[in-house]
Amino acid sequence: MDYEIRGASSINGAFKVPGDKSISHRALLFSSLANGVSEIRGISTGGDVSSTAQCLTLLGTDIVRRDGIVTVKGKGKRSYNAPVSPLDAGNSGTTMRLLAGILSAQKFDSTLTGDETLRRRPMQRIIDPLSQMGANIVPSYNMTAPLKIFPSSKFHGIRYELPLPSAQVKSSILLGGIHADGETIVVEPVESRDHTERMLKLKKIQTPSGLETTVTGEYIVEPAEYEVPGDISSAAFFLSAGAILPNSSVTAIGITLNPTRTGLLDVLKEMGAKVVIENVREAAGEPIGDVTVSHAELKGMAIGGQLIPRLIDELPIIGVIGAFANGETVVRDAHDLRRKESDRIVAVVDNLAAMGADVEELDDGFVVRGSGSLNGTELDSYKDHRIAMAFAVAGLAASGKTVIRHSEWAQISFPEFFEILENLVVLGKQGNDPFPAGVGKSGLTAAEGS
Ligand code: S3P
User: Fold this and answer.
1) Is 313 a catalytic residue?
2) Which CATH class is domain 21-215?
3) Among 311, 386, 304, 309, CA closest to 351
4) Distance from the CA of 332 to the center of ligand 1, in angstroms?
5) Is the CB of 313 under 6 A from ligand 1?
6) Segment 20-58, tens digit of pLDDT
7) Would you kindly state where each structural domain of the chain is located, as residue ranges?
8) Which listed CATH number (3.40.50.300, 3.65.10.10, 3.60.40.10, 3.40.50.280) goes with 2-19+229-445?
9) Exposure class string for 75-101: b at 16+ Cβ within 10 A, else e
10) Choosing from 20, 48, 313, 380, which is the catalytic residue?
């Protein structure tokens, strides 16, 4: 569906976002491998996490959702049933890559597939290490999904140095590793999100080759009670709107403050926004807290190197922030952004250019020369949830009317996005309603309206 936004005067208030997507996937997967009953509170409501739950159900795991609590009856490692049909990971790279690690060690055939976008995304990055472990994976053309996975004659541990920082690849190997003979060691040159290591309570050590995590095939996954913290990557859109719209201040309640995820907060601070973190506490082995971002004059900055994995999913909204900062915002070392749900370098550059921004495409990033304004226009979501949401925020800060085509893609991670946005923004730039046909008003969710 098309979503129409007019420039807003400010954004204010406190909000809660649904559970973190990365942590929710892992809570489901690890619960399915545990021998006993696990409970998950605050799970992500997005389509990606539903894809994981559906795949696990097809593999024989009993998953029930009641009153916001998900109960998973795991039967231990190697307890999955052979699936009667292909496992559909939908749009979710995390579902496909993490499940591939587990399925490589099973005694039955399985097929992992996904939607049109996921079937174009690179799978060699997991096929290489899993094959070194003895996995028997037959991909489709150009090392993409569907992936046919056959039983391995000998599935064993390896030492693997990640050629690119990727939590999905790291987790896929570690999940293979807890089913493999002997020891599996994953070495990360640059640290990526560490939810798998935290939830499985794995030790990491710094060595000259990088950060090393070790598991063995003897590892037993315990049932647990998970309290999933709010998703900082969902909160990012409203926090960023708070930074760029004058007279604004927004507070995200109870979001992940895991240092491997908080790159955006560091960037907002360095660009000049006011960032206050309060009520720091712990949930699901993760630091969480309440984060307030208030508007201030922003200046552009260079973003690259070790910072990239700490804000990889926030780079589209950082592009939008760049348009409202003085000087240049330069993003580099983010080549993998071309391999996400869309080519996010192209999506950010083309949409910002359509709004009149001074923007330049780089092979591994982009440059935005901020002018402090954008012009509303018709934009595409590129069938990418983060592009739909980043440019809804751009529309809020732009002059005139912005239309996001296929805005329903926001549902992949954050079905409540438009409704929360409408609650936080009260007044348009000229005192008018910024959402004349908003989802909250029609009572429709974005998907129902599509
Ligand atoms: C994720 C890891 C990141 C991130 C994705 C979720 C995860 O991908 O972009 O949205 O849950 O492990 P990479 O690990 O491929 O960088």
Assistant:
1) yes
2) alpha beta
3) 386
4) 18
5) yes
6) 999 999 999 999 999 999 999 999 999 999 999 999 999
7) 2-19+229-445, 21-215
8) 3.65.10.10
9) bebeebeebeebbbbbbbbbbbbbbbb
10) 313
